[in-house]
């Protein structure tokens, strides 16, 4: 593991091959990366970045992750969306952007990279708040999602509000707490959508200080009790940011979890 796990957030990555827009707002777009090698076309992988839905965090910090997946032979899209602190971000724009982007990107990527994007719904790889958004998309547009790899996801918004994760991040996303906006929480919270129809693997480090591993344990247990197709991979000695870092000791576990989704896709 790097001395500073956050180093991945600013580590340079190769420039994307294409950028496509799925809407008219400047942040309704995605960066595309062509798959390495000459293998068969594969379904698109959509990377949904985290940052607690805040404007100061954008898709650029998932560049190393996306480049590593493309190097393994996958067409990859790094999805951007409106975030809190921006016009149109928060409720409902952040969530509707992700649902719209996930639905539109397979066609947009196939047009931009002819012959490289296979048929089938994309696999979503979401980290932290991006894990929440990936789970939300699977609950909202299940036919558009072929599988979810949720890395340290914020999988219970009501609990995240109670814990005050990242100093009011959930309140900023939804406008307040569950007592004030129960309908918003019911619509946006993956815990309310258990069990998801989409095959899901959750990976969480036991040393995570940003999103507690107990949240994933509870979410997966509730999903399995409701007969959801989901499993949890806990990584001892791993914190929050190693999950998106191809240079971390956690990376082989991430690729194994991803491969299990891809092979059953």
From TrEMBL:
Molecular function as annotated in GO: hydrolase activity
Region Disordered, annotated ranges: 1-21
InterPro entries hit by this protein: AB_hydrolase_fold (IPR029058), BD-FAE-like_dom (IPR049492), GDXG_lipolytic_enzyme (IPR050300)
Coiled-coil features, chain-numbered ranges: none
Annotated ranges, domain BD-FAE-like: 31-220
Key word Glycoprotein present: no
Highest taxon, organism lineage: Bacteria
Designated name of the protein: Alpha/beta hydrolase family protein
Zinc-finger among keywords: no
Entry keyword set: Hydrolase
């Amino acid at each position: 593991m790097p001395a500073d796990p956050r180093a991945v957030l600013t580590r340079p990555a190769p420039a994307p091959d294409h950028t496509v827009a799925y809407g008219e707002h400047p942040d309704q777009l995605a960066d595309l990366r062509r798959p390495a090698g000459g293998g068969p076309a594969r379904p698109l992988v959509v990377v949904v970045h985290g940052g607690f839905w805040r404007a100061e965090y954008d898709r650029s910090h998932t560049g190393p992750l996306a480049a590593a997946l493309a190097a393994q032979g996958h067409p990859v899209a790094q999805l951007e969306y409106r975030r809190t602190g921006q016009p149109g971000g928060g409720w409902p724009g952040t969530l509707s952007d992700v649902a719209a982007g996930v639905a539109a990107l397979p066609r947009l990527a196939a047009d931009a990279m002819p012959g490289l994007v296979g048929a089938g719904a994309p696999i979503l790889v979401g980290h932290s708040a991006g894990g929440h958004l990936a789970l939300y998309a699977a609950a909202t547009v299940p036919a558009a999602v072929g599988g979810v790899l949720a890395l340290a996801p914020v999988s219970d918004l009501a609990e995240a509000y109670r814990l005050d994760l990242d100093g009011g991040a959930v309140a900023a996303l939804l406008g307040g707490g569950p007592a004030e906006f129960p309908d918003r929480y019911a619509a946006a919270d993956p815990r309310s959508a258990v069990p998801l129809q989409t095959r899901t693997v959750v990976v969480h480090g036991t040393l995570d200080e940003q999103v507690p591993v107990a949240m994933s344990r509870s979410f997966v247990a509730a999903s399995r009790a409701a007969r959801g197709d989901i499993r949890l991979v806990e990584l001892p000695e791993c914190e929050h940011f190693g999950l998106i870092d191809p240079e971390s000791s956690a990376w082989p576990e991430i690729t194994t979890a991803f491969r299990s989704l891809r092979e059953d896709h």
